[in-house]
Amino acid sequence: MASTRRVVVTGMGAVSAAGVGADALWRAARDGRSCVGETQFIRPYRGRIKFSAQVQGFDPTEHLDADVLPFCDPVTQYLLTAADEAMAQAGLTRDRPLGPRTASIIGTGAGGMHTIEDGMYLGMVEQGRPPPLTVPRGICSSPPSNISIRYGAQGPCFAVASACSSATQAIGIGAHLIRSGLVDRAIVGGTEDTITNCIMLAWEALRVLTPDVCRPFSKGRNGMILGAGAAAFILEAEEVARARGARPLVELAGYGTTADAKDQVRPDAAGAAACMRLALGDAGVSDEEIDYVNAHGTGTTVNDITESEALGMIFGKRLPDLPVSSTKPIHGHALGAGGALELVVTIGALREGVAPPTINWREPDVKCPIDAVPNEARPMQIRVAMSNSFAFGGINASLVLRRAEAA
C-alpha cells in the first residue's frame, strides 16, 4: 500500500496579504496584483524599510470563537481560519472528530512571534510581566496543536521548523505519512507572521530586503519583500476521499527534500537540483513532463542565480522554454508559510491552466536564463507542476503536483 497509495488534495484555504480565502490569493497572483503596502506597526518603527505584504484588516473575532482566541497568536488565528475553509471545501465538519487516522502537521519558521515580542517588550521595557498564556501562544507547536484540538485529529501532530522550507516539508511529510499507511488524512500547511519591529530590523541587518520593488530573476533586482499569512490543505488517500464522495482538487504526486550541508546563508545549486530530482523520482515523472515551476524566487541576487543554475541542471536545454515564475512580489516572502501560499497558487495554475506572472520584471539577466513569465499571466496547458522552497541552512524542499484528471 505504501508504494501505490495516491495522495490527493481535497480542500485548501488561505489568509494572506490578498485577504481571506484561497481564491483571493490565487486571483491576486494570476492577475499580477501586488499586495505590498505600508507596514502597520504597533509601536514606532525606527527602521528604513517600512513596506511589506502584511495581513491587514483581519478581524479574528469574525472567524474564531471567544474561548479559542486567548490561545491564539496571529499565526494560529490565520491558520485556523484557513483550515476552516479547507475543511469546508473538503466536505468535512467539526461535528465529527477526525480521529486517530488524521495527522496535523504545520510548518512555521518562528511560531508566535507577535506574542513573543510583545511579551519581551512588557517584561524588559515596561518592567511588567508577560500575559499568562504567552508560552502556549508563542511556541511553534501551538499552530498544529490547535488544529488537532479544533478538529479532533488524534494522529501525529507536530510543527516543522526549517525556515523557508517549513511549509513545503510539512506538506510533503503529511503526504508520505498517508502513503505509508500510518494515517488516511492529514491537515497540513504553514503559517508565519514575523512582520514585527525587531524582526524587521533583523532582516534589514542582513541586507536582503529591497528598498523599492521585488523583481525576481530580472536584471536589476535588489532584494525581497517580507510577507505573512497561512495556508492549509486537506490531504487524503485517494481511495478514502473517493469512498466518501470527495472530489480531488489535484494529486500531490511527489516530494523531495535535501540539505546542502555547506553554508548557513549561501545556497548551493547542486543541493537544490538534488531535491528537485528526488521529487520527480518520488512522483514517477520525468523532467520532460513538468509544464510549470513555481520558483522559490526571492528576488535576491544570489538566490535567483543559484536557483536558475539548479533548474538548468534538471531541465537542461528546455529550461529557456519552461515557464518558471515567482509570485513573491504579490504575496511577499512569507518564510515558513511561503511554500503553503505558493502551493495555493500552483494548484490554481494547474486547475485554471494559467501560469501566473513574475511582476516588476524589467529585462533578462544572462545569469538567470529562464522564462520568468514576465509581467503578464500566460494561459497554457498545465498537467504537471513543481513548487520549490529553498531555505537558510541549505534546507531544500520540492513538491510535484498532477491535475486530478491526469491522475
Give a verbal description of the structure.
The protein is an alpha/beta fold. It has two domains: 7-250, Thiolase/Chalcone synthase (Peroxisomal Thiolase, Chain A, domain 1, 3-Layer(aba) Sandwich); 254-406, Thiolase/Chalcone synthase (Peroxisomal Thiolase, Chain A, domain 1, 3-Layer(aba) Sandwich), CATH 3.40.47.10. It contains twelve helices and 15 strands. It has helices spanning 22-31, 74-90, 113-124, 134-138, 142-151, 166-180, 197-206, 238-243, 269-283, 301-315, 328-331, 338-352; strands spanning 7-16, 19-20, 37-38, 51-52, 102-107, 157-160, 185-192, 229-237, 250-259, 292-294, 324-325, 354-355, 378-379, 384-391, 395-403. The strands form three sheets. Strands 1, 2, 5, 6, 7, 8, 9, 10, 11, 14 and 15 form an eleven-stranded mixed sheet that branches. It has a two-stranded antiparallel sheet with strand order 3-4. Strands 12-13 form a two-stranded antiparallel ribbon. A hairpin with a 2-residue loop joins strand 1 (7-16) and strand 2. Helix 6 (166-180) crosses helix 12 (338-352). The longest helix is centred in the N-terminal third of the chain and has 17 residues, at 74-90. The chain is globular.
Radius of gyration: 20 Å
Largest sheet: 11 strands, mixed
Beta strands, count = 15
The overall number of domains is: 2
CATH architecture of the largest domain: 3-Layer(aba) Sandwich
Give the CA-CA distance, first to last residue: 17 Å
CATH class of the largest domain: Alpha Beta
H/E element order: EEHEEHEHHHEHEHEHEHEHEHHEEEE
The structural class is alpha/beta
Name the poorly predicted regions: none
Number of helices: 12
CATH structural fold name of the largest domain: Peroxisomal Thiolase, Chain A, domain 1
Q: What is the share of helical residues? A: 25-40%
Q: Estimate the mean pLDDT confidence.
A: 96
Sum up the overall morphology in one term.
Answer: globular
The CATH superfamily of the largest domain bears the name Thiolase/Chalcone synthase
Strand content: 15-25%
